[in-house]
# Entry
Amino acid sequence: MGQRIDVNHLNIYYGNFLAVEDVNINIEPNKVTAFIGPSGCGKSTVLRTLDRMHEIIPGAHVKGEVLLEGKNLYDKDVDPVSVRRDVGMVFQRPNPFPTMSIRENVLAGVRLNNRKISKSDADDLVEWALRGANLWNEVKDRLDNPGIGLSGGQQQRLCIARAVAVHPQVLLMDEPCSALDPISTLAVEDLIQELKGDYTIVIVTHNMQQAARIADYTAFFNLKAVGQPGHLEYFADTTTMFNNPQNEEAERYVSGRFG
Amino acid sequence: MGQRIDVNHLNIYYGNFLAVEDVNINIEPNKVTAFIGPSGCGKSTVLRTLDRMHEIIPGAHVKGEVLLEGKNLYDKDVDPVSVRRDVGMVFQRPNPFPTMSIRENVLAGVRLNNRKISKSDADDLVEWALRGANLWNEVKDRLDNPGIGLSGGQQQRLCIARAVAVHPQVLLMDEPCSALDPISTLAVEDLIQELKGDYTIVIVTHNMQQAARIADYTAFFNLKAVGQPGHLEYFADTTTMFNNPQNEEAERYVSGRFG
Amino acid sequence: MADLTQDPKASLAGAPVIDFDKFKPSRSFVASRKRKDMAMRVLISLAFVVACIPLVSVLWTTIANGVKRLNLNFLSYNMTGVVGGNPTPSGGYGGVFHAIIGTLEITGGAMIISIPIGLMCAVYLVEYAHGGKLAQTITLLVDVMSGIPSIVAGLFAFSMFTILIGPGSVNGFAGSVALSLLMLPTVVKSSEEMLKIVPGDLREASYALGVTKQRTITKIVLRTALPGIVSGCILAIARVIGETAPLIMTAGFIVSTNFNLFDGKMATLPVYVYQEYSTLYANCAPSAGPECVATIPMERSWAAALVLILIVLILNGIGRLVAKVFAVKSER
Amino acid sequence: MSSQDKTAVTMPAASGKTADKVFRWIAYACGILILVVLAAVFLFLLFRAWPLIGGDQAANSKTISDFTGGKATNFWAYVGPLLFGTVLVSALSLLISFFASIGIALFISHYAPKKLATALSYVVDLLAAIPSVIYGLWGGLILVPAIYPFWNWVATYLGWIPLFNGPAANPSRTVATVAVVLAVMILPIITSLSRDIFLQTPRLQEEAALALGATKWEMIKLAVIPFGKSGVVSASMLGLGRALGETMAVLMILSPGLTYSFKLLQASQNQTIAANIAAQYPEANDLGVSVLIGTGLVLFLITFVVNYVARRITEKKVA
Amino acid sequence: ACGDNTASTDNGSSNNNSSDTTAKSEPISGNFNGAGASSQKSAVDAWVAGFQATNPDAKIAYDPSGSGSGVKTFLTGATAWAGSDKALADEDVDDSKSVCASGTAFDIPVYISPIAVIFNLKGVSDAGKHIKMDAATIAKIFDGKITKWNDPAIADQNKDLELPDLAITVVHRSDKSGTTQNFVSYFKDQAADAWSYDLSENWPNSVGQGAKGTSGVVSTVKQADGTIGYADFSAVGDLGTVAVKVGDTYNEISAEGATKVVDASEIDSSVKGDNRVVVKINHAATGEGVYPILLVSYMIACPEYKDTKTAEFAKSWLTYVTSSEGQKAAAAAAGSAPLPDAIAQKDAASIEAIKTK
Ligand SMILES: Nc1ncnc2c1ncn2[C@@H]1O[C@H](COP(=O)(O)OP(=O)(O)OP(=O)(O)O)[C@@H](O)[C@H]1O
Ligand SMILES: Nc1ncnc2c1ncn2[C@@H]1O[C@H](COP(=O)(O)OP(=O)(O)OP(=O)(O)O)[C@@H](O)[C@H]1O
Ligand SMILES: [Mg+2]
Ligand SMILES: [Mg+2]
Ligand SMILES: O=P([O-])([O-])[O-]
# Structure
């Protein structure tokens, strides 16, 4: 089951540069939350703080709290490695491990955690994850082929399968469809709808229609000017956001759209 | 003034692979013609045959005719280099020359062709082209700054200015807005509307809304299956295409869209 | 499209039920992973520290032994009239002026031969050949060529000049030929890499403006790749500037300054270092005063080695500077 | 938009067409030249070594016997131990430097703080350019006496391994010491290239690994190493090539011998082709030079084959 | 040219011939090359300096590339003279016909240097003491037959020394070398029973360690306790040297000792070609201070050159080199032994044969 995330007074820095300012947001479990906003407003940056991927960039750090079911991820005693095990992530461009087969790609995360997996357990897990990622039927006959040989949309679903195979509580997705063609996009959107039964999903998208189609809640980030920190401008359930936003900037952005 | 293009029975190959089959299309002068269609159907490929950019890819060649004001571009005695001077092109990702200033970028087409041009003529040309590309006011004070230092949308307009500065009759644009944020997209779309007074414009876009907004005519390309050649499925004026297409596939594509 | 929009539930229907506890890492395993991570961190840092010892020792030895005799006099005089361990009229003990000239001229010659050829070869590979059979062969052979032992290059240049010019022909240029053979693959490889990373966009942009291929290459591609090409060439020069064996064979050794690359022997710094090392001791007559230094050859040897390192350093500096000046301004 | 076209630009017809052609041909010729050069190296060497094959065999065997003090009388018996020594020394040095290089490269690319990494990169590049004659000086004068106690310890405690059979030669002008010096020499080369490759690991791959909950080392195993493997192999080949052909350092340190011996800690066991050429060349007569060029040809062919095979292997891996 | 240290050294040692006033009718000018034996390098440096003092416009370059290479180069006509640690071979004499305008090349001794048997032994060499040995003992050590420093063969001759029970590490040249040939020819003559190998410039056995060049041998000997090697006297530095048994006494190394041996040696009259002065070193020479291990190094020239300028140079150059002035300069710069008068006269006669008109 998904877990809830509460972000409190989060300031996010790249070195000395304050990239995102004072974010407060409550992300509901088993719902899809979309982050939208103009380029550079910090959507990706915020997303990456939710599984402590932000800090792998040299000099990057945060101030504030991110509570996963009440436990602050940024507490001293929390190991980022285990956070990332609980919070999965899917990236803008599909990134299967190029040297691994489809099967090995799915198992990559699991093998890190537990080296002694029986073959049959592994088989079951691969099937489960690939079915979950809506990819099973397409690849079941060639699990030992390299993952890199798949089409873009298939690769992206493979990456989702790889992420869910570790059985995280939360799934973060940073523009997972922006490199995909419409048909693949549809497949991934369907998948997201389905996955929210099991996971809390946060998705960054440039595409407002996509947000409108798949998200339960939408967060609109904005920035005053280039070089200024971004901030969370408005957060609402998706219907409100797109039909009746109570925020002028959001209204302008949502209606004046042409992306 | 723009020139008309007539494409007759054009088959386009990458090596032995027939990428696009039997295209027949008449592109009206001083109008905007949009190419739409699913990924891989050959929109870009067709576009690039219109200024013989296709053949710079090793092994790529065409069969059939492309008539520019009645003269076949693919006649033996036609020098592709001079064709490209008559037919300008703007690419998906803005690509100003990184080693050049804004001014030099605009003049690149002239300078690189080793043509002598006096300083005052050059100044005039730069101003004219940048005004034409709707960029003059934003950059007039920093013409000697590197072109790469502009924002994405500005860069794309700079590339349009660069293309315009060579005085082409036709302007080809391959998804010129797909890498831009909404605000920059608006600026470029405005520009296109304005430019069609002087040029024949052909634009490839993934975005049907964009086609609907800016094009006079729309060509819908399709492909039967991956690996099959693409073809021109339906060509009509834009209103017909989006409101009342006389082609089933086009209808499905235009209505079932989710880009 | 139809098969892709199939009912997703159907796809999960046959899915096996998974007991995820099975895959949960045991606590000890988590700890052992952490330990392993730490161990590797330590090991890698240790590898670094251990490897640093000899490398630092090499540098330190050269600097410590080299500074003793490194002065202006040493840089501005050659070895003519240097007898035993006695000082010369100028108050020094001989110097490396002639060897610096030789090194610069011979390496310069090698540059003039190999940089245009290497660069054009890279242009051919990247811009014209498009991975054809010939290009593959050339790429492979360039790789293989980078393994040519320097002494073989020396033998080659020596044999070539013997056969073409006649026996006993020793000149700086033969050294240049030997060195250019060693430089060529590095130049080709690095230029090739640099040309490859010039975005295809830029070429297309240029072609689309109606620019010919030749001008596109010279004015856009090469210009954009210039900083990288320069650093690559500097690297190639650094690679050959310290070659000794092929130069002993081809350029020989003299004590006076020879400015003519094409005629007569030429001293070079590495050969000088080696010659002085071979001399080891200078003789001081029993009657000689304290100004006669018996250990002067080794001291000169170290000082010349240091000069060589300094030249490499300066070259690197120049390379960086040039790269910076011509750098593509990419900051937004 | 101002439709008035103020610029008077005349278009020269088909300008640059010949320049285009000429340029193309120059590029082509330079490409071909590489093949010609390699062929020329081979042919010139073969030509000069010809008396070995086509010349007076009695004179040949006398020359060779003169070189070896009567230990060998035909070319193959002469070049055999030399080849063995060459391969032994360079393989050892590669073995020593390989892991250290990877370690340093990883340290610079993934562990060291950015500032330190930049500084280290610069130092490594500088070290890669240090002339081998300096490594020779350092090895012969500093390392040889300094390393003897260590070899002595090895011979005493690990002497039961045939490789380390004692007693360790003192001064230790042995294969083991030379291998260490060559390892130090090629270390910066391999490091520098490997570092460049590791730095190129796609961020996306690294992040994919980390996002799955990998530790840093696991991330390196999952993303960095697979990506860098073929590059590291070719870097090592370059290092091996350098070691195979290294002349001065070996010449100035090794006490040579002409045997097929693995006794790394004993003196006068092996000699390398390159050092042998340099040692014998000054005093060799015409026939002697032919013999030496013959050994050089063998060295050339060996490096050629080693590199060729290695490239083929890495090529396949990449594809 | 640029960077030259113009005047020759005129301070310190004894080679004071810096006589700007020396009345030489016609100073030599031009560029002249020589190449050959590395052993002569230091001496040639001094000779060049001395020669240029009177012929400031003569530019002389010497490449110490090795005797073999020097002779090879000379026979191509690229050099005016060659330096060599051994006399010309018969083929070389034949070959020289094509280089010399007439006649065949000849060699004359110009440089005599004692070869030291050097060693490094704690408590002995660092205390400045010598070890005494006879020819057979040295030969046996270098043949690996005597392996310990306290071997009775050594100890018996050195009752005054505490010799340790330490293995002897022999250090020999690994490259082809005139020094080696001259060194072992001493064994052949004086300890034939203990030395069975053929005379050669390559070290014949695989005892001990080989090192490249004199410098290699010296630095190797320096690096460990218990080493013994041989090297040109000028390169000995502070290492210990063996006092060699001559007759009934043990003589320490000295330049004069080597001169005396040459003085007592015959000229080999059986050699092919004219004007040649080849010394048959008499290792059996006895007398006070005689030191029998030595190297005689030659210069090789043509009796007639294709170019008169070169001929004039060669004549003037060799004359200077073999003059007592020249020999003194070499002694100061390289620690070599001066040519005995008898040899110098023979040299002069040969040099006189060079035709300059
Ligand atoms: N690695 C980095 N180092 C320094 N600054 C960064 C880095 N990555 C992003 N930034 C800065 O942080 C801010 C937010 O960037 P971010 O990528 O989160 O925006 P975004 O909303 O995801 O934009 P996009 O829609 O283009 O992906 C921007 O000002 C950006 O320049
Ligand atoms: N350089 C190339 N070499 C070989 N085949 C190519 C090349 N470029 C494109 N193709 C093939 O030609 C067909 C048409 O591609 P094209 O890029 O024109 O499609 P498109 O409609 O522009 O797609 P997109 O919307 O993704 O840009 C595709 O099957 C593609 O795989
Ligand atoms: Mg982003
Ligand atoms: Mg396209
Ligand atoms: O002068 P050498 O022949 O002993 O090198």
Q: What stands out?
A: Residues B 43-44, 174 surround magnesium ion (ligand 4) (CB under 6 Å). The two ends of chain C are 42 Å apart (CA to CA).
